[in-house]
Amino acid sequence: MWWTRIVKAHILAGCLLLHAAVTAAAELPGDPVPGRLRVLIVTGGHAFDEAAFFAMFDRMPDILWGHVRYGGEAENALKPEAAARYDALLFYDMNQQPGPHTQSIEQVLAKGKPAIFLHHAVGSYPEWTEYSEIVGGHANFGGRVIRGVPNTKFLHDVWMHVEIADRSHPITKGLRDFDIYDEAYKNVGISPDVHALLRTSHPASDRSIGWTHRYKKSQVVYLQLGHGPQAFSHPIFEALVHRSLLWSAGRMEGK
Fold it and tell me: Is 105 in a helix, a strand, or coil?
């Protein structure tokens, strides 16, 4: 398993600041690292700006991260015997192909592995029944009704005003309402049992766009935001992702 560090070189030429990224790889430590949270990032099934996305995690000094992709190392990395290498999972995939790895996800989370799901990850596995229970919600972008979840609509490139639904939760405490340039989802099947963190009144979006949830022994967080570079560079979105990782892994006090 591999974790990736993106090293930025800043070059001043005239009035222009150019950014160069170099990718290096090394094994994610198998043993706990004092003061650092080992996070496995899982992608696949949806294109995204990888440099901007992973740069967000590079800005988190207490996060060590590894990246695997479905169709590559992800299926093996999610096996229960591999779980000891990381402290939390972060899914930014939209994989449509269930397989033995879905059973691995269930087994790992049943044992208490924290899991964060971002943006289009809510649309993974439309026909895997347990996935709704894991995430606390499920989108269906396939154009037909599946298990009572209607066709989910999406709208790219919109300004959304986001309200903090729970100002006392450790993930959102001290954060203000904010505006973000992102993508809206409408008609996501959301469990009534989730605990809302974020809301919006945008007409192209569902009301609830961020929540905490518990699946068996695991703390789960879903954040609907996170479509592209404008979101990845937004300080409040970055804070939400960072705090979600820390809180779900028991590194922040509070409910």
Answer: helix
State the Cα–Cα distance between residues 16 and 19, nearest whole angstrom: 10
Residue 35 phi, psi (nearest 5): 75, 5
Please state, in angstroms and rounded to a whole number, the distance separating the CA atoms of residues 1 and 68: 8
Going by DSSP bridges, is the β-strand pair 137-138/2-13 parallel, antiparallel, or unpaired?
unpaired
In the DSSP assignment, the letter for residue 226 is -
Pairing of strands 178-186, 88-93: unpaired
Statement: residue 61 has pLDDT above 50: yes
d(Cα 71, Cα 81) in Å, to the nearest integer?
19
Look at residues 199, 223, 201 and name the one whose alpha carbon lies nearest to residue 213: 223
CA–CA distances in Å: residue 195 to residues 43, 69, 137, 213: 25, 29, 12, 6
SS3 content of the chain, % helix, strand, coil (to 5): 25, 40, 40
Domains recognised in the chain with CATH numbers:
2-248 (3.40.50.880)
Biggest CA-to-CA distance, the chain: 58
Q: Report percent pLDDT > 90 for the chain.
A: 75
- As a whole number, the mean pLDDT across the chain is 87
Q: Indicate the range of 4-13, 132-141, 213-222 predicted with least confidence.
A: 4-13
Q: How far apart are CA 155 and CA 2, in angstroms?
A: 34
pTM: 0.88
3-state secondary structure of 219: strand
Query: Under DSSP, is residue 197 helix (H, G, I), strand (E, B) or coil?
Result: strand
Name residues whose C-beta falls within 8 Å of residue 95's C-beta, 6 or more positions apart in sequence. Answer: 44, 45, 70, 124, 125
Q: Tell me how crowded residue 107 is: count the other CB atoms within 10 A of its CB.
A: 15
